[in-house]
Each structure stands twice: as C-alpha cells, then as structure tokens.
C-alpha cells in the first residue's frame, strides 16, 4: 500500500480498534492522511476519476485492487473490455455516419449489408484496442525492463478507459461531430494519468508511451482504409 498524496509506501491505510471504529493512517513522509478515499462514498471517487486526480488512481491501483480476490478481479476486467469495445464500435459507426451524410449522402453504407458492416466495425475496434495495449506494453518494456507487473499495467489501462461510458450520452441525446473526439481525448488523458501513477514516472514519459500507442493505431487505420476504402482515418 502507498500514500495517495506522495506515493510513499505505508504499512496500512487505517487501523481498526473495534467493530466499526477505525482511524486513518498518516503518511510518515508527507504527514497527510495516507488514503482519504477509504471513507469516501463511491460517487466522490467517481468524481475524482473524472477530474483525473493522481490520488484516486493511487488508491485504486495500489490500495484497492490488490485487496480484491484475483478471480473476481479478472472477471470484472473481462466484463469491462466488451463494454469498451461496444462503445468504440458505436463511435466508429457515428463517425462514419456523419462523414458520409456530409460527403456522400447518396451512399447508404449501413443498409447494404448491416451485419457484415457492424461485424467489421467490431473487429476493427478489437484490433485497435489490441494494438494500443500491445504498444504500451512493448514501450514500457523497452523503458523499464522486466521490473513491471504487466498484468497490472494492462488492468490500469482498461480501468482508466472508463470514459468510454460517456458514449451513452451520445445514444440518449443528439450530439455533434466533436463529442466523439472529446470522449477519446478524455480517455487518452486518463490513460496518461493512470500510466504515470502506476509506473511512478514523469508526465513526459507517460505521454510518450501513450503517443506511441496512438501512432500505432493511426498506422493500423491506414492499413484498414487501404483494404476497405469505405473506412476513414481519424486521429481521435
């Protein structure tokens, strides 16, 4: 466990004296409460995640997740991945629909073979996520070697991609062409924060790693467009 304020190792984040009675531990180095999120309501934790505070990621990645039973943790992460893919597919579909409604309104892309089209979008989203995570892992390996828990690294990226849930708002209310890129940018900055906290590294290095993964995704898009001219290339 670590102090969520400064990242210093602590033996525990609270001491329990009796049932329902406990006291939060103070960090020996910064003298602040080691983990204030122990007594926070879930909604307050979510708000700090949206604000991308490093403290809340330290709480989740170092103090909370290690206490979860491994099987349950893996099952939860595996449930998050299909959700991320589903919302990514919707973003791809929304982007294509807007693109063709402006550029080529006479072309009905999604009515010719809808199942094939949506299936291809799913596999594209899967390939994007796979390449994105693989490049992050490889870049981290090149910079930090074997002394990293790469399973935990992948979980950090998946958890910090929770911003894809904001796509639900696009499904409920009418949105413009800027909403999707804003959601993707929010996810990228969340990934940067999670990576910086997990690796205990600088902002510059974490930005470089995520940027390399984004460039790899763009290269993959170029290959996909070469194979299927009906697709488009986007940075976000």
TrEMBL record:
> Which parts of the chain are coiled coil?
none
| A Gene Ontology biological process term | intracellular sterol transport
Keyword flag DNA-binding:
no
Grouped into one coarse class, the protein's main location is endoplasmic reticulum
What role does this protein play? Mediator of sterol homeostasis involved in sterol uptake, trafficking and distribution into membranes.
Q: Where in the cell is it found?
A: Endoplasmic reticulum membrane
> What is the name of the protein in this document?
Protein ARV
One short Pfam name that applies is Arv1
Describe the family membership recorded for this protein in Swiss-Prot or TrEMBL.
Belongs to the ARV1 family.
Query: What is the source species?
Result: Plasmodiophora brassicae
| Membrane topology field | Multi-pass membrane protein
Give the transmembrane ranges: 121-144, 156-173, 179-199, 206-227
Please indicate if the UniProt record lists Transmembrane as a keyword: yes
> What keywords were assigned to this record?
Endoplasmic reticulum, Lipid metabolism, Lipid transport, Membrane, Mitochondrion, Sphingolipid metabolism, Transmembrane, Transmembrane helix, Transport
InterPro entries in alphabetical order: Arv1
Kindly state one GO CC term assigned in the UniProt record: cortical endoplasmic reticulum
